[in-house]
Amino acid sequence: MNLRAFLSLVALASTQAFAPIGGKNYDSKVSTLRAEIGDSGVSFEHVAREWRCKYSPGPSGGPGDSDSSPIKTCTIAKLSNHSLVNISHLESLKACQALLDEYLPKLKSLPKAQITRQVCGGCLDFKVSITQPLEEHGAWAEANYEPLESAFMEKLKGIEGTSMHETQEITFEVL
Q: CA within 20 to 30 Å of 64's CA: 18, 43, 96, 103, which one?
């Protein structure tokens, strides 16, 4: 069973591997849904959908000057009118950030969503995490993360200098 199917089940009922739990972690007045991964002691009430890629380094090998060739042009996105936009001197990291800026209002409008961005200058990761409580995330998972994920990922893949475009679901808890 994939995590998407699991989340749907958790929202409706319990399973043996990822079972909603009660006791000290559950307040019926607040009706917070928590799940536990088997008998591991790892419980959670939030799940994040992560969108990620690798961006290209600049001449220094770091992110600050990524793709800074003065003649470099990259296509960053299809706009609402479906035209392609070419922007000169735009580094891949800057293009990733511009794409996130475009989608941020839509992401923030998802039910109870918290959006985080992680950038690593060493391994050149650009990651966006959309974290929601189990119930709300399960509903979004049932909709195959639409209408946002496929469009965002398509545009991310269109950014010159990016690679390893992936998505993943992970538990996400503030401890």
A: 103
